[in-house]
From TrEMBL, chains A, B:
Residues given in the record as substrate binding sites: D127, A195
Described function: Exchanges the guanine residue with 7-cyano-7-deazaguanine (preQ0) at position 15 in the dihydrouridine loop (D-loop) of archaeal tRNAs.
Binding-site positions, Zn(2+): C278, C280, C283
Protein family (similarity comment): Belongs to the archaeosine tRNA-ribosyltransferase family.
Keyword terms: Glycosyltransferase, Metal-binding, Transferase, tRNA processing, Zinc
GO BP, one annotated term: tRNA modification
Highest taxon above the source species: Archaea
Annotated segments matching region Disordered: 488-510
Protein name as annotated: tRNA-guanine(15) transglycosylase
Enzyme Commission numbers on file: 2.4.2.48
Pfam family, one: TGT
Provenance organism: Halospeciosus flavus
Entries under Gene3D superfamilies matching the protein: ArcTGT, C1 domain, Queuine tRNA-ribosyltransferase-like
Length: 510, 510
């Protein structure tokens, strides 16, 4: 067990956690966003970060080490005093510079020692950030080198400082998985998924999800995971739903410098804005024209403050969603901000089995809000649980009312499929679904019927549905009798409410 | 032409407009949200409304008239001084009370005269708010009565005061349409769609859309439309996309009184909140536990302020989306906040032809972000425009590269279908689409192919697609040759980029 990380609540593969950072003597609640501080170029004073909700920041020890003034100041005062920040401070190692410029002048041992001496709370070795889409051989050999460096990191005396164990492996999910297993087996503490920035820059959110899902499979549940370089609030919910706990944002400042304004729906350019689509203190007090009139420094600072406000509000929104159990509903919405985000969400649902492992069995409500909802882990779980039930004799599966001539009279509800009426009030069967249900939902329900029939070869089934499309009925095996209630006079009595239906002796029947 | 309302920008059926209110000597930019002020119970001082962005408020002249103190004060000082508000003031008439309690003690003539005398800027006659689902006969006879009252209103001397002409008709879209035609033919000024509150209270957003679409069909484009009683920010985008210009929110205060916290995703209860999922000044400076500890009045005021901030931010977001031309993308997101909102969006797309009339021909970008995107008006418009093109000879429609052996080599792109390569850089064919395209998108494209083939019976077509599903290929008529590029060695060359493909002599070909 990694004692410095404790999970408080879960939803899908997302979680609220507490990361204890002993050297700073603080506990960071995750998911947490770490503003990146470029020590050469301060946009928002780190002393003000707590105003926005930041408990932890990240800065680059390599830049500090290579600058005479910063190095001396950091060694002399320590990072916390130098930056004026009392929370936890994470330091990067120069791996990014290695990826950008091909070489750097420091070893893992040297940089970890330096990080320790300047008072970092979480240090980072010099790993090799292998880019996406390289030959497998290169990904493997660079991963081997990264793993040597993790071993070197284990040997450095770093006191109470936590140490990152980056997970590489390019776009090979199986390499990411074995890299994660290896990292998890070290005595290191925090697990950044590295080199995903190129995927995010190219809007390859589907590939990003596959990479992270690979890494997550190799890590224990008690491993705090940092999605390195993920700074846009548009994708925090998706990343959190995969089980990422830490994000870092250089974007809040970099975007502001370029007059770019972040929203959970994407990025706008100040020049093209007539209105500020946001409720933050900056956007409530100013309009775009006013901000355009400001000098460069003032404009940059206001935009950076807005960018931080919108980013931290999204973090709070994600935490509230995890508490409420509607994180996937939030991801549903964010998936509509860009086609690439839809790819990310569709990729996430390809890993429904992985999400299902940690998804709570009971939550507030399941909202069916798109065709993607039919692929959610809850639908899959319900279908699996049909194996635990034993319908016998002549069984009606109906969207309408019970019928006495059957031995048992179950409900059937898109997208879940059939279930005994006693389960009507249990999650997820209490789901709210649209009146205008789509074929994906009907088909998912029909697959449930097919599975129940396959599991119970000696039971006779009748499916009484309300106008399901042919594409759904095609999944129902021929041995199931099928009745369309919308074509029958019987449908008149089906207006009776579900609860009334449940109350008249429902549980005595099966 | 109604000279007091001018449209500045349009997207789908939504618009940014300027409503000139001569008596207040102000111009209100629409879509506008009017906070409802209950003169007996002030939660947020109307003098502070401009802080939130309110240019107009609405209050109830019937309540004022029936209260001796309020009546005398209003007659004496006028509404603007009484409420401390310089913007436009709309007054309701007591129709709501009529609907709730069955009778009221005032006529249209009396209440309009009273409204005029207390200085209202937009007055309202006493119409009959017919509830949903009543017998058609009742809806018709009540509508007749409402129309008599509009005639009476036309006869009242009201100076520069604008006057509302409510549109009723219960849940009969054709009655709403004829009611709207009648109202539009009066000399009255603003057009509230009335009695939709019961639909919204029951989350019948699909029915609400059908009702509003009916009313909109009967009104000229220059008619400012008020969706009476629509106060939840979750549905502002949907209502705006239908062409509603004015909303009113009593909810900001009523919800606050009940510890309910509004978001664009729905409503949360303060007791169940661990985090404030919002960036507004209230939520940035407080957390839920702090607010729970406050006294009733202070807690109610803070929650009401949050509710106003989040509501007005959504109004700005809608305006920015209309300016950018991505209002439907915003509706896509909001549709995921509740299954009933999905019903509303699906109902909206049933009226794609109606949206298409005002939708700009060219915008920034089309984002395909759900299966619903395949039903958007732009897809429909593209399919209609195929009639203007004349492909001749032997024509390739390909997701891959051009081929010399054909007389013409068009592109084909889900969800739009086929188009000549010269149009590649025009809206909406510049659409961003997901890598993981869904069958709805492929099917929409296949319908485009089918339509092109039907329009050009003498032309020979070959469709070269990349792995379209059978459900899409079923739409392609047998006379079109079909090739799956993913099964051909040819597919190797298809990695060349679209732009490269366009540049090598594309326009000379057809």
């Amino acid at each position: 067990m990694r004692e410095h990380f404790e999970i408080q609540a879960q939803d899908a593969a997302g979680r609220i956690g507490e990361l204890r950072v002993p050297r700073a003597d603080v506990t960071v609640e995750t998911p947490a966003l770490m503003p990146v501080v470029n020590p050469n170029l301060i946009t928002v004073d780190p002393a003000r970060f707590p105003e926005f909700g930041a408990e932890v920041l990240i800065t680059n020890s390599y830049i500090i080490r290579n600058d005479d003034d910063l190095r001396e100041q950091a060694l002399d005062e320590g990072l916390h005093e130098m930056l004026g920040f009392d929370g936890a401070i994470v330091t990067d190692s120069g791996s990014f510079q290695l990826a950008e410029y091909g070489e750097i002048n420091v070893t893992t041992e040297e940089i970890l020692d330096f990080q320790y001496r300047i008072g970092s709370d979480v240090g980072t070795p010099v790993d090799i950030p292998t880019p996406p889409d390289v030959e497998r051989e290169r990904a493997e050999s660079e991963l081997e080198e990264t793993q040597k460096r993790l071993a070197a990191a284990e040997g450095v005396e770093t006191g109470e400082m936590l140490v990152n164990a980056p997970v590489q492996g390019s776009t090979y999910p199986d390499l990411r998985e074995s890299a994660a297993e290896h990292a998890y087996a070290t005595n290191l503490d925090v697990f950044p998924v590295g080199a995903v920035v190129p995927l995010m820059n190219e809007y390859r959110y589907g590939d990003m999800v596959d990479v992270v899902a690979g890494a997550k499979r190799g890590l224990g549940a008690d491993a705090p995971v940092h999605l390195f370089g993920a700074g846009h609030p548009m994708m925090f919910a998706l990343a959190a739903a995969m089980g990422c706990d830490l994000f870092d944002s250089a974007a809040y400042a970099l975007y502001a410098r370029d007059d770019r304004y972040m929203t959970v729906r994407g990025t706008e350019h100040l020049d093209e804005m007539a209105y500020f689509p946001c409720s933050c203190p900056i956007c409530t007090e100013h309009d775009p024209e006013e901000v355009r009139q400001l000098g460069d420094a003032a404009r940059e600072e206001l935009l950076a403050e807005h960018n931080l406000h919108v980013s931290f509000a999204e973090i709070r929104r994600i935490k509230q969603a995890i508490e409420r159990g509607d994180l996937l509903e939030l991801v549903e919405e964010r998936a509509r901000s860009h086609p690439a985000m839809l790819d990310g969400y569709r990729a996430l649902l390809d890993h429904a089995d992985q999400l299902e492992e940690t998804d709570p069995a009971s939550k507030d409500a399941f909202f069916y809000t798109s065709t993607e909802s039919a692929q959610r882990p809850e639908v899959q779980r319900h279908r699996e649980r049909l194996a635990r039930l034993n319908p016998e004799g002549n069984v009606l599966l109906s969207e309408g009312s019970r019928r006495e001539e059957y031995d048992a009279s179950w409900r059937v509800k898109p997208p879940f499929g059939p279930y005994p009426r006693e389960l009507s009030q249990t999650y997820p069967l209490t789901a709210e679904t649209p009146d205008r249900m789509d074929r994906d939902g009907y088909e998912a329900a029909a697959k449930g019927v097919a599975r129940l029939a396959a599991l119970n070869p000696d039971t006779e089934f009748t499916l009484a549905h309300k106008g399901w499309p042919a594409s759904a009925l095609d999944y129902v095996p021929p041995r199931v009798d099928v009745v369309d209630l919308t074509l029958q006079s019987e449908s008149v009595e089906d207006v009776e409410s579900e609860s009334a239906d449940e109350s008249d002796g429902g549980s005595s029947e099966e």
